[in-house]
Fold this sequence. Notes:
This protein has 1 helix and 11 strands. The chain is mainly beta. Strand 3 and strand 4 (about 85-100) form a beta hairpin. It starts with a helix and ends with a strand.
Amino acid sequence: xxxxxxxxxxxxxxxxxxxxxxxxxxxxxxxxxxxxxxxxxxxxxxxxxxxxxxxxxxxxxxxxxxxxxxxxxxxxxxxxxxxxxxxxxxxxxxxxxxxxxxxxxxxxxxxxxxxxxxxxxxxxxxxxxxxxxxxxxxxxxxxxxxxxxxxxxxxxxxxxxxxxxxxxxxxxxxxxxxxxxxxxxxxxxxxxxxxxxxxxxxxxxxxxxxxxxxxxxxxxxxxxxxxxxxxxxxxxxxxxxxxxxxxx
Length: 248
């Protein structure tokens, strides 16, 4: 157990380093509001023999330019298999329509095929979750971005800790998490996507469990985009995150 705690602390420290670049005055900064609804469930109600098979339905809306315009959306369905009560494997698709300020000149539609390994367990100090996700990213044929026919392979590692706060309410938890994004390949020939460190998302906030099926999380996310060979500077987003998780 101590080993898992040390790994979590190390990962959060790495995330804070990536999220806190020294030259903050050179960053393009913005305030966003992101909303997310994610539902997971078993196919057991359809057929008891399918009790280990699960579905994932996710929708997101992201508002940028000081939360004044719709900047990005995500529709992300998936199918999973529960290896045991702690571990599951998944595969799915995501459609990501994207506009300003993520898109510099023209809006575009991004497509993603994704695979992930999801693990979670309860400890005396809280619930620890690890999500390892691979993505293959490509764009619609009419996307006006040089090199948009390329496919970018990206790895994402999320580590999350939910600490119960019974002195406030048995339904309240403190959330701290970090997700590191690594591009496995180069894609756009103008340096829009560069191999190596892509971005880091650090989130902290509070969770409230309405019932065994519904939990909401509200908090602050710091997102740092790395753009080493792009015409635009690195970007830091300050995000109000509102999330609803449903488990059926």
